[in-house]
Amino acid sequence: MNRKTAVEISTDLVRELRARTGAGVMDCRAALQQAGGDLDKAAELLRVKGLATAAKKAGRIATEGLVEAYIHTGGRVGAIVEVNCETDFVARTEEFKRLARDLAMQVTAAAPQYVSRESIPADAVDAMRRQFSAELAGKPAAAVDGRLEKWIQDVALLEQPFIRDESRHVRDIITEAIARLGENVQVRRFARFKLGE
């Protein structure tokens, strides 16, 4: 392990952590000092700090951003997604553009119907609960709840496993982007198109 004192934290080490995490220079230096120069520990410290920061920023108004489109090879299916942030400056960054592109690809590939769990109409949830209750008659209520949760993860964009890393959900990807960009990021709306539908 690379143990260093606060005085020995090199610019190269800060630069490497910054490239890994996207965090600011001062945050990287402080995390490295706290972690004794261990890059992995410093990256984890920054990740935890970023998640806390993202939670604080979630209520802020996001009126800037961009509309991104993705058309899959062959031109038979595609999507348009509106992703918002707080400032035009962040909307023009490569990281934000890449996030919007990934979200458009997610919509194209996974065909969600709603942006979030909260945006699913209550009557749609009730209808699916009744359907699953009928299909699983005699089974415990937990089985119905589990089936309903699986359906929500299929139809709500933010609840879906991310297509580039299925161990994380789309909500996690956006939360991490908020932490790195320092601004609230929201998916406002999307549309998916498939030839013939």
Structural write-up:
This protein is α+β, with helices and mostly antiparallel strands. The protein folds into 3 domains: 6-57, Orthogonal Bundle (Helicase, Ruva Protein, domain 3); 64-116 and 156-194, 2-Layer Sandwich (Tetrahydropterin Synthase, Chain A); 121-154, no CATH class. Helix content is 52%, strand content 17%. The chain contains 8 helices and 5 strands. The protein has a 3-stranded antiparallel beta sheet. A two-stranded antiparallel ribbon has the order 3-4. Strand 1 and strand 2 form a beta hairpin. Helix 6 (122-135) crosses helix 7 (141-155). The longest helix has 19 residues, at 39-57. The chain is globular, with a radius of gyration of 20 Å.
| CATH fold assignment of the largest domain | Tetrahydropterin Synthase, Chain A
Question: How many independent structural domains?
Answer: 3
Radius of gyration: 20 Å
Name given to the CATH homologous superfamily of the largest domain: Elongation factor Ts, dimerisation domain
Q: Which residues sit in consecutive blocks of at least 5 with pLDDT less than 50?
A: 1-7
CATH class of the largest domain: Alpha Beta
Query: Residue share in helices?
Result: 40-55%
**Which word captures the global form?**
globular
Distance between the termini: 56 Å
What letter string, H or E per element, gives the SSE order?
A: HHHEEHHHHEEHE
**Main sheet specs:** 3 strands, antiparallel
Count of helical segments? 8
Lateral arrangement of strands in the main beta sheet = 1-2-5
- Category from helices, strands and their pairing: alpha+beta
Total beta strands: 5
Overall residue-averaged pLDDT value: 85
CATH architecture of the largest domain: 2-Layer Sandwich
Measured by DSSP, the beta-strand proportion falls in 15-25%
